[in-house]
């Protein structure tokens, strides 16, 4: 039986989905425009620094903080009211993926795939988990992880091979086994957060990076 999803969570995930323009930019801007992969990486750093500046300003300026909360507070999780928001961690993860894309043109494709799958898969996991999740895994659900996996695999198998330049840049297409491994990596990393002592890392920061590395390793060695 389906449970209603809070409108705040729907709006949050819709905003999250719009961030897919970032991996699109990492891959396509150097191909179609007179910008190098290094230029794109610097641009993502600027986005990250702007996001951090906004966060610091909302903490230090009561007037700006009140405006920020009146405008976006309904989409913030409780812990984000006194900590960095997920948007800033997404910007940080995007910057790290853009840095990985500097390794080679193929890595820009790996980063494009992995970051996109994470952004959309994370949204699917949250919406499926909140609407039909029953089997709890910490703060998340097994149903959400399955939804994340299915969406990631569907996109990787039926959409990405037909995107302009994607397979051409890779040199050879991903096999089904490789795509399953990448989708499983994204889903498991999203489901099981990494903890360092008592501190839980934000998955927006590390999942796209580790998934990019997994995509590179699977494509080259499996």
Could you characterize the architecture of this molecule?
The chain contains 10 helices and 4 strands, in the order ααααααββαααββα. A hairpin with a 2-residue loop joins strand 1 and strand 2. The strands form 2 sheets. Strands 1-2 form a two-stranded antiparallel sheet. A two-stranded antiparallel ribbon has the order 3-4. It has 222 residues and is mainly α. The protein has one domain.
Report a brief summary of the structure:
The protein is mainly alpha-helical. The chain has one domain (7-221).
Q: Treating each run of at least 4 consecutive H or I residues as one helix, how many helices? A: 10
Multimeric organization: single chain
The total beta strand count reads 4
Q: How many discrete structural domains? A: 1
Uncertain spans: none
Note the overall shape: globular
Average pLDDT works out at 93
- Major sheet strand order: 1-2
What is the fold's blueprint, element by element?
Blueprint: H1 7-18, H2 21-32, H3 37-60, H4 62-72, H5 86-100, H6 105-132, E1 136-137, E2 140-141, H7 142-159, H8 166-170, H9 176-191, E3 195-196, E4 199-200, H10 203-221
Antiparallel strand pairs: 1-2, 3-4
Helix pairs in contact: 1-6, 2-3, 2-6, 3-4, 3-5, 5-6, 5-10, 6-7, 6-9, 6-10, 7-9, 9-10
Question: Which structural traits does this protein have?
Answer:
two-stranded antiparallel sheet; 4 strands
